[in-house]
UniProtKB/TrEMBL annotation:
This is Methylene-tetrahydromethanopterin reductase. Pfam families: Bac_luciferase (PF00296). One of its GO terms (molecular function) is monooxygenase activity. Belongs to the NtaA/SnaA/DszA monooxygenase family. The keyword Oxidoreductase applies. Keywords: Flavoprotein, FMN, Monooxygenase, Oxidoreductase. It comes from the Bacteria. InterPro entries: Diverse_substr_monoxygenases (IPR051260), Luciferase-like_dom (IPR011251), Luciferase-like_sf (IPR036661), NTA_MOA (IPR016215). Residues 31-395 form the Luciferase-like domain.
């Protein structure tokens, strides 16, 4: 079994009260680039493979049909376009990679393909692209959509989006660039070709009007874990972000392997980085005290705003009592996300389980904080749990760590306590064995 890869998820390093916790952005308030540069340098010294940024362009407004709670409590906002931040972090590092997220639901593939090509140049081949199919109403409204796109249509569009991007990245191959100073010939036109794509969602002539980048294309990432999402991504995905407990991980791994095989691909070459929230300290007592600080933040309105935004369903509209199955049907009817919190709830309780709204919100509080599934303890204790989990799911990938603590403190603890402990045990894959991110995260 190959060693673990590691990544840090910085998507919410300042939201949900993290900005106010001890060790936070004091003297350099979000989005001060110096904090991101500090995290990047510290993580690179530890040998972390990638820093990842999810994205969302709308302020949560599903809860009670208003953005007030999200604004008041800083729930899933503010969010910047992290492309410029990545460029600044790349300038102070040389090996660690960077993952960026753009929506196939609302963006055009030519724009995204060209942007990521440029960032791959800026970073020297250290860019990954996490393509998403967006389900949130707040995002849809900002791009002129009166309602959210149907789930399956979102993934059909994602599949076509990625076919266009991949064709564009291949349209100007490295061997086409001659750059012969003696003759003045820059490129061989016979090797550069339009893509002439005409599809359901896009018409793109091509070719890409850019130089071929160090990786040729960014490392391609996807996190959809619905059957449609897995089937769509199997055509192109090189690295997957996964979620859930041990049995959920095993099911996801098996479903992905089967989809890759149906697509004619070698499943052993595609790793999964499992989303893992961790609080690591020098002692288990110190870690528990830090966890208690996080738990103290959450106001009920903050929980409602968080859940409603991420599921795409206004939980304030629920009756006093309902079954888990009825909840799924209500979310489905509203074109919300049936995986994530809702899917985990049904898997835990069963579709016939009866819940009151207060009981649902107790589960929702644990989901929003992540404290019910946070690894918490000393570096030795958390490393023990990770090694056991990695062996039980058969390896092939690793972990993408998030922190409920303040930035940069939480990520500094992971870099300076947990990652070195895993490396001391020989549990990690070699740090930066190649020149590009694709080489460094290969399984």
């Amino acid at each position: 079994m190959s060693g673990m890869h590691t990544a840090f998820d910085l998507s919410f390093a300042h939201t949900e009260g993290r900005w106010a916790l001890p060790g936070s952005w004091v003297g350099a308030p979000f989005p001060d680039v110096r904090i991101y540069q500090e995290i990047a340098r510290t993580a690179e010294r530890a040998g972390v493979g990638m820093l990842f940024f999810g994205d969302g362009s709308g302020i949560p407004d599903t809860w009670r049909g208003s953005m007030d709670a999200a604004l008041e409590w800083g729930i899933q906002w503010p969010r910047q376009d992290m492309g410029p931040m990545v460029a600044s972090m790349a300038a102070v590092t040389s090996r660690i990679g960077f993952g960026l997220t753009y929506s196939s639901t609302y963006h055009h593939p030519f724009t995204v393909a060209r942007l990521l090509n440029s960032l791959d140049h800026v970073t020297g081949g250290r860019i990954a692209f996490n393509v998403v199919a967006s389900a949130r109403g707040a995002d849809a409204a900002n791009y002129g959509f009166a309602e959210r796109m149907d789930h399956d249509e979102r993934y059909d569009r994602l599949g076509e989006f990625m076919r266009v991007c991949r064709a564009l990245w291949a349209s100007v191959p490295a061997e086409a660039i001659i750059a012969d100073r003696a003759t003045g010939r820059f490129a061989d036109p016979a090797l550069i070709h339009p893509i002439d794509h005409v599809g359901t969602h896009f018409r793109v002539k091509g070719p890409l009007s850019s130089m071929p980048s160090p990786q040729g294309s960014p490392l391609l990432v996807q996190a959809g874990n619905s059957p449609k999402g897995i089937e769509t991504s199997a055509e192109f995905v090189e690295l997957v972000f996964g979620f859930g407990g041990l049995e959920g991980k095993r099911r996801h791994r098996a479903a992905l392997d089967a989809a890759l095989e149906r697509a004619g691909r070698d499943a052993s070459t595609v790793g999964i980085l499992w989303a893992t929230q961790a609080i690591v300290a020098r002692t288990s007592r110190e870690a528990a005290e830090l966890r208690d600080e996080v738990a103290a933040f959450w106001d009920p309105e903050a929980v409602g705003a968080f859940l409603s935004h991420n599921v795409g369903f206004d939980f304030a509209t629920l009756p006093f009592r309902f079954t888990a199955g009825e909840l799924v049907e209500a979310v489905r009817a509203g074109q919300g996300a049936q995986g994530g919190f809702v899917g985990a709830l049904v898997a835990e309780l069963g579709s016939d389980a009866v819940l009151t709204r207060d009981e649902l919100f107790e589960h929702g509080w644990r989901h929003a904080t992540g404290l019910d599934h946070t690894l918490c303890g000393s570096a030795e204790q958390v490393a023990d749990l990770l090694e056991e989990d990695f062996a039980a799911i058969g390896g092939r990938g690793g972990y993408m760590f998030s922190s409920p603590l303040a930035a940069p403190r939480g990520f500094a603890d992971l870099s300076e306590l947990l990652v070195p402990e895993l490396r001391r045990r020989g549990a990690l894959a070699p740090a930066y064995p190649g020149r590009t991110l694709r080489e460094n995260l290969a399984v």
